[in-house]
Amino acid sequence: MGAGAGPGCALAQAVAPPAESSEATVASYDLVQVAGRYVVTWPLNGTAPEHGGEAVVVTADRLRQHKDGRFTGRVTVEAHLSDGIAELHSGALNFVATRSKRELARALEERLDYEGLNWDQVIEETCREVVKREEHTEVARPLRLDVEHTEAAYLVEPLLLKRQTVLFYGPGGGGKSYVALFLAFLLENGLPFAGHAVEPTSVLYCDWEADRQEADRRATLVGAALRRRFGRELTAPAYRECVMPLVDEGSAIAEDMARTHAGLVIIDSAGPACGGDIMSAETAVQYFGALRKLCSHTHAASLTLTHITKNERREENGKRLPIGSIFFENYARATWEVRTSETTDEHELGLGLFCRKTNFGPLPSVGLSLTFAEDEVAVELTKAEDIVSEEGALQAMALEELAGGWLTAKELADKLGTTPSTVWNMLTRLKRRGLVTNPKRGKWAVLDNRFGDLRSV
After folding, report:
1. In this structure, how many other beta carbons lie within 10 angstroms of the beta carbon of residue 371?
2. What is the pLDDT of residues 114-157, one digit of tens each?
3. Looking at residue 435, which CATH number applies to its domain?
């Protein structure tokens, strides 16, 4: 983990300490853990920086344990000297590789040669302490037999359980993101849902699909409808636009959760958050391991949004399953299939949320309608119709596929895993509703402008 000679020499000149620092010693360090980030301060003259002393500060984050024994992360090293702060190093490091740690220590010696400062000691002890804390596990102790309240605890009953992992899955363009944002507003502001009180809870919305501008637009629309309904000003949930997989961005997200005291984190959506083959069991296990670690810092619940399978994998009763490894069903404590249904209003999207798996006993279905107006998106309770919503799920997937380009009925049937005759009948109905058209003989395309807003939700 060496450093370039040119930049190192220049930096060494810039941060070289004055001659009187020859009495400096490094005897101990101070470690502060903020969620998934560790900050280790090594005083250089026995006095902490906040009291006017000089110090080396090592920050470790983006920590990740690998099945081959590697323990990697990002290490940033700064020198806090009397004449200012200089960054000496920032880069990846294997915390358990002796050679990598020695190379980093040698590079730092070139950049800051401070009398009494032992870089081998700084790097070795910092890495050892971080690894020890990350690998710390709870000591076994007997279970309690005197719990007063044994019923399931909810954030939003019946959809979101306290301190548990919940999964919403449905076709792209099926309204999942709007529903998640709606629930986030309810929690942030303590607004009731389905006749149940909702305790105010901070929410962090982590978005791998849309960007902040689009999220602000949606929040404005959903918030406008709720302000009108409840007649009060609202607090919006915290939002983070994410790029890297959860296993890599987790420590930074954990810091946001600690700062905002988040009781719920929303992951939108599982595919890009996994950062790998979503069908792989290893990818799913890594994802849920990172999610569990993320939530452990604030004892938060999680809501993961994801897509559905087509026809290649279903339950015996024909119900669709979340896309990806079977561990997406196994690790979640509750899974909800989000199905769309036909409505008579072209500006309304009907949804049914059906609990397909729970570890807390049967949960009732929930029906929602999303009404899209120019200045708001209103979410209201309706009756959940599971009988007709299989057709709605197929239609939603068809519209999503057609949004990517013109297709024949056979091509669309192959993508959806159904028969051409089923697709032909469905397209005929969609054409009568003004949602699709035939721009060319045998080809089908999306016509509905509303779908442009729904396709990514």
Report:
1. 15
2. 888 999 999 999 999 999 998 877 789 999 999 888 888 999 99
3. 1.10.10.10
